[in-house]
Amino acid sequence: MLSSKDENARDFPFRTPNQFHPPCEHAQLRDGEPVARVRLPTGHGAWVATRYADVRRVCTDPRFSKAAVTAPGAPRLIPMQRGSKSLVIMDPPEHTRLRKIVSREFTARRVERLRPHVRELTEGYVDRMLRVGAPADLISALALPLPVTVICEMLGVPPSDRERFQGWTDGMLTIGAPALARADEIKTAAGNLRAYLAELIAAKLAEPSGDLLSTLGRAHADEGRLAEDELLTFGMTLLAAGYHTTTAAITHSVFHLLREPERYASLREDPAAIPAAVEELLRFGQIGGGAGAIRIAVEDVELGGVTVREGEAVIPLFNAANRDPEVFADPDTLDLRREDNPHIGLGHGIHFCLGAPLARLELQVVLEVLVRRLPGLRLAIKEDDITWQEGLAFARPSVLPLDW
Fold first, then answer.
1. Which InterPro entries match (predicted)?
2. Model pTM greater than 0.85?
C-alpha cells in the first residue's frame, strides 16, 4: 500500500479531458522526474517510467516481471485473477511456449495474404456509410466492425455474436477506478466470455477447421501443449486484444488526419505515403497509455536515477516515451513523412503486440480506402464536444461523427 514516499505522488491513471492528446504529466515527468511515484486507485503506490530508454528497459529487463502482478496484494490496474494464465501477464518460459503456438499466424508474410479480403470488407463498410448518408459515426460504421470481423474470422468466432461478447471484452479491458467500481460486473463478464469460448471450442473439437480456436483446441486436446485454463484464457486474450487496439488506432488516426485537413489531403494526393504515415500515427496517437504493461520488480533495480525495490510496481508509459525529444525530433509534431521512427506504439520486447502486422495492415487499408472513396471527409463534431468511454485501456470516444 502507500508509503511515506508516496505522500506527494500523483494520482494515476492521469486524467485529461481529451484523450486524443497526452496528459500534461507526461512532459512534466519526462523532463524533470522520469521515473516517478504515483498512487493507484487500489491504494497502492507504483512507479511510472516516461523516457524512451527507461520504458524500453522495463520491457526487456527480466527483473521486471509480468507474472508477478497476479500475486496476492500486488498492485494492478486491470482486474485479473490470481495465477491468471493470460499471455499478456506471463514470463518466460510459459510466455514463450504459448506465444509460439499461434505466432506463425501473425507473421507479416501470412497477414499480408489477408490484404485483399480486408480491403473488400472495408469497401463494404464504406459502401454502407454512403448508402446511409452523412453524418456517420466512424466507430460504429467502420473502426469497430472491421477489426471485429477480421479477428473473429481468424479465430472462428461468428461475427454475429459481437453484441454478446463486446460488453464482456470491454469489461476485461477496463482500468483504474472504473474497474474497481465494477469489479463484480467485470468478473461476471469474464466468466460469461470464458463459458462462451468453452462451448465454441468444444464444438470445434468435434468438427475441426483451420481457424485459430481450432488450432488452440488441438494444442490442448491432441498435443498436450495447453492446459484447459491456458486454452480458454488464450482465446479470451486474442479476442479482446484482437480488435480493441485496432479500433482505437483507426479512430485516433482518422481524427488526427482530419483535425488538420491538409494532412488528409496529402495522403489523398500521395497514397504511397500511407505506410510511413501509419507508423507516425501509431507514434503520435494515444491509443494505449501502457497501464496494462505494469510489471513488478523481482529484485532491487536501478532505473532512471532511482532504486525500484523488490516487490514494487513499474508502469512503462509508451505514449510518453513516443514523445521523448531525445529520440524523436520535434516529437509533438505529427510528421507523416517522418523517416527515423523507432516508435514503441505497439509495445516492445517479448510482449511486443502479437497482432502488430495485422493492426498495421488494417490501418493502411482503411486509410487507402477512405482517401480514395471519401476525398472530402471531415469531422462533423467540434473537438471540445467529443465525449469518451470511461476507463477503457485503449481509449476511444463514444462516437466520432464524420461528414463528406
1. Cyt_P450, Cyt_P450_B, Cyt_P450_sf
2. yes
